[in-house]
Amino acid sequence: MLSHILYTQVELRSFVLRALRILVNSNVAFASQDPILLDKLPPGVRADGIHQKEAVKNVEFLRNQAESWLAVLFNAFGSVNREDRGMVGEVIAAWISIAGDTVLSSLFYLCLPCWLTASTGHCSSIPQSLGPL
Questions:
Q1: Residue 13 in contact with residue 6, Cβ under 8 Å?
Q2: Scanning 57, 77, 93, 124, which has the fewest C-beta atoms within 10 Å of its C-beta?
Q3: For the residues of 43-55, what is the DSSP string, one character each?
Q4: Could you tell me if residue 48 is inside a domain?
Q5: Total domains present in the chain
Q6: Is residue 44 part of a domain?
Q7: How far apart are CA 124 and CA 48, in angstroms?
Q8: Which domain holds residue 82?
Q9: Distance (Å) of CA 97 to CA 103, 113, 123, 133
């Protein structure tokens, strides 16, 4: 449902992207209890913090979702205007930070042809699932 909103409801895209970024970053911060990461969170998120054990479980759950979300986010990145790509890039960075090695390897090999052909502007979008190599 959220991925559908990213593609179809432009007026809500920034809200969904911000929520997806905060979802990952807040759980990582609470799981690590890193004061620097915690300070970067919006005040409302810090005030309503969760226990470290719960955050660790949440990060693991989100890690299992990272492959799907990265596929959606890379497709969104390719479909938004240049000026909106920064926000999408920030969300991609958040999800990459928790993705496992297998997902990152798959992502690299799927994105490599796009990067190599970036000068021509021709690149098919990332599939809905990064899948095995």
A1: yes
A2: 124
A3: HHHHHT---HHHH
A4: yes
A5: 1
A6: yes
A7: 41
A8: 2-100
A9: 11, 22, 24, 20
